[in-house]
């Protein structure tokens, strides 16, 4: 019987570089996928429907919540963000590792439902560096940056609730560490009990 995939939560304050790290990480992975979230926020220049997010309106988002079609969701910076349940459950069943790039509130909801999930938090080297990265990205207005900096403080205070932290000073280094975590977790006995049972019972 196939082992279920790992559910990996990848969080960190907005602007810390999660997207860049994941993009690079995925180039070397065959058995990992990144869940595509739904959001009510407007697409940024260059973002594509069904690739970066499913961009949907508030009414549709709320219908999905009501229909239990969201594995988790949260309000962030005045918009809804959520993980559509169906694809994640199906991929885990197929033994594929699924990465959720989500913020803290959603991560805590996942922790309740999937205590065996792997929780990874990406930290900036300093709060000044985070502000610099957020500002230089040039995609948010000053007001949105202030909201994101506020959320960042709250999120970083809660990093203790995760299993691992990675400091993103250098993308390559961050990627290597994330890879090491995924490999080690894939070998962890707590995730391989079914396999152990299956092989030993057929011996
Ligand atoms: P952004 O607007 O910069 O793309 O995302 C803002 C925040 O929402 C980021 O911290 C991102 O990780 C988080 N986020 C993206 N998708 C989801 C989701 O499906 N659920 C939750 N809870 N947070 C999400």
Describe the structure.
This protein has a single domain (7-201), classed as Rossmann fold. The chain is 46% helix and 20% strand. The two termini are 15 Å apart. The strands form two sheets. The chain has a five-stranded parallel beta sheet, with helices on both faces. Strands 4-3-6-5 form a four-stranded mixed beta sheet. The protein is globular and about 65 Å long. By secondary structure, it is an alpha/beta fold. It has helices at residues 18-26, 58-66, 85-93, 104-113, 127-137, 142-157, 171-187, 189-201; strands at residues 7-11, 32-34, 38-39, 54-55, 70-76, 79-84, 97-101, 118-123, 164-167. The protein is built from eight helices and nine strands. The chain binds guanosine-5'-monophosphate.
Give the structure's gist in a few sentences.
This protein is of the alpha/beta class and 203 residues long.
Radius of gyration: 17 Å
CATH topology: Rossmann fold
Q: Could you give the distance between the termini?
A: 15 Å
The percentage helix is 40-55%
Q: Into which percentage range does the β-strand content fall?
A: 15-25%
Ligands, deduplicated? guanosine-5'-monophosphate
Regarding quaternary structure, what we see is single chain
Q: Count the helices. How many?
A: 8
Question: What class do helices, strands and sheet pairing give?
Answer: alpha/beta
CATH hierarchy: architecture: 3-Layer(aba) Sandwich
Mean pLDDT: 94
Q: Write the element-wise H/E pattern from the N-terminal end onward.
A: EHEEEHEEHEHEHHEHH
DSSP, total strands? 9
Question: Mind telling me the CATH superfamily name?
Answer: P-loop containing nucleotide triphosphate hydrolases
